[in-house]
């Protein structure tokens, strides 16, 4: 049985399923950054390959699930940040009021 996860926030719900695979322990969102790699750094904490056992397959499926969740949350944060910026810009443009202005 593969693991699943459900994200719930307010009235939004999103289900995550790792799918049939293949799965590895080499997650795309859990590695060190490309900047560090390009500067000659190495990932000293890189996980070992999953063994061909029930626990090894579960471990690899969890890595896939973690990647799915990380990508989803990153996209959600970017969208919220863009909406926040748009709201501030809209307020300034539509109302002609600076955000921190005080009327005396």
UniProtKB/TrEMBL annotation:
Main location: nucleus
Keyword tRNA-binding carried by entry: no
Single GO cellular component term: chromosome, telomeric region
Comp. bias intervals (Polar residues): 1-11
Compositionally biased intervals (Basic and acidic residues): 80-94
Keywords, in A-Z order: Activator, Chromosome, Nucleus, Telomere, Transcription, Transcription regulation, tRNA processing
Top-level division of the source organism's lineage: Eukaryota
Keyword Transcription regulation in annotation: yes
Disordered: region residues: 1-32, 80-104
Intracellular or extracellular location(s): Chromosome, Telomere; Nucleus
Compositionally biased spans, kind Acidic residues: 95-104
Free-text function comment from the UniProt entry: Component of the EKC/KEOPS complex that is required for the formation of a threonylcarbamoyl group on adenosine at position 37 (t(6)A37) in tRNAs that read codons beginning with adenine. The complex is probably involved in the transfer of the threonylcarbamoyl moiety of threonylcarbamoyl-AMP (TC-AMP) to the N6 group of A37. GON7 likely plays a supporting role to the catalytic subunit KAE1 in the complex. The EKC/KEOPS complex also promotes both telomere uncapping and telomere elongation. The complex is required for efficient recruitment of transcriptional coactivators.
Family, as annotated: Belongs to the GON7 family.
Subunit structure: Component of the EKC/KEOPS complex composed of at least BUD32, CGI121, GON7, KAE1 and PCC1; the whole complex dimerizes.
Full protein name: EKC/KEOPS complex subunit GON7
Lineage of source species: Eukaryota, Fungi, Dikarya, Ascomycota, Saccharomycotina
């Amino acid at each position: 049985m593969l693991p699943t996860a459900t994200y719930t926030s307010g009235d939004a719900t999103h289900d995550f399923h790792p799918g049939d695979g293949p799965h590895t322990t080499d997650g795309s969102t859990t590695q060190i950054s490309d900047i560090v790699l390009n500067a000659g750094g190495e990932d000293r904490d890189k996980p070992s390959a999953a063994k061909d056992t029930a626990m090894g397959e579960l471990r690899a499926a969890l890595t896939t699930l973690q990647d799915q969740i990380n990508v989803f949350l990153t996209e959600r944060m970017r969208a919220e940040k863009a909406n926040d910026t748009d709201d501030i810009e809209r307020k300034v443009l539509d109302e002609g009021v600076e955000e921190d202005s005080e009327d005396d």
